[in-house]
Amino acid sequence: SITFVIQEGAQYTYAGLTLTGNQIFTTEKLVSQMKLKEGAVFNAVKFEEGLAAIAGIYYESGYMSNGFYPVPSKDTDRKEISYNVVIEERARSHVENVIVKGNNKTKDYVITREIPLEPGDVFSRDKVFSGIRNLYNLQYFGNVIPDVQPGSEENLVDFIVNVEEGSTISVNAGMSFSAASEPDDIPISLLFSLTNSNLFGEGKTISTSVNIAQKNQTIDFSYGQNWIGNLPIAYSQSLSFSH
């Protein structure tokens, strides 16, 4: 048997935060990101969340290489803990490469055109979120995981998009019954539809549907795409036959 002997220490309160080395953003702007308020019982999780939010202010503007070094200071008499965060500001990071992984069917350009970041751009966390949202809206992927890795030189980063492809083909078939208006009528109609929303992995949609009854038969075809060249212009065509 194993016995754990726990010696509980005193409960500390949070005494605030000071910043050193920040010149790009004001101390007031950065400290306002802290979720942990002065005088509250110290919570390490909330403190780390606030520190991540401070770093996020820099990341949103492309400062990906900064260093953040929290130095704690404990007052054992008052049972208080405060921090001084030393910020090492560096130059903005630029995108060296946009790399796509995990796509076996979808072409790379279909994915990269949805991401508003290109090699040479200043890295932006907001643009990353926008690109991930665009990829989910395509409904081609079950999961999209972004990653950022250091590039070949300082202040260069590789933006990596890992995708898990899902099914983009749907098939539906059915049969419906209706009341017969005449004794010789067959009160049955057959329905069939086929849709491929990522034709040849090029982000194009094609669909067809067939409705067959004794007196009426219809066939519908449609084609669409959300890009024309490098421009996000939607285009669609449809063709119907009926008898």
User: Per DSSP, what share of the residues sits in E-state strands of 2 or more residues?
Assistant: 35-45%
Shape: elongated
Instruction: Tell me about the largest β-sheet.
Output: 5 strands, antiparallel
N-to-C CA distance: 83 Å
Helix content: 10-25%
**Count of individual helical segments:** 4
Number of strands: 11
- Catalogue the unreliable spans: none
Rg value: 29 Å
Task: Walk across the major sheet and give the strand order.
Answer: 7-8-9-10-11
Would you list the SSEs in sequence order as H and E? EHHEEEHHEEEEEEE
Task: Name the structural class.
Answer: alpha+beta
The pLDDT mean sits at 92
What's the short version?
This protein is of the alpha+beta class and 243 residues long. It contains 4 helices and 11 strands. The chain has helices at residues 27-31, 44-60, 108-112, 125-138, and strands spanning 13-20, 67-75, 80-88, 94-101, 141-150, 156-165, 169-177, 188-199, 204-212, 217-225, 235-242.
How does this structure look, described?
This protein is α+β, with helices and mostly antiparallel strands and 243 residues long. It contains four helices and eleven strands; from the N terminus they run E-H-H-E-E-E-H-H-E-E-E-E-E-E-E. The strands form three sheets. Strands 7-8-9-10-11 form a five-stranded antiparallel sheet, with no helix packed on it. Strands 1-3-2 form a three-stranded mixed sheet, with no helix packed on it. A hairpin with a 4-residue loop joins strand 8 and strand 9. It is elongated, with a radius of gyration of 29 Å. The N and C termini lie far apart (83 Å). The mean pLDDT is 92.
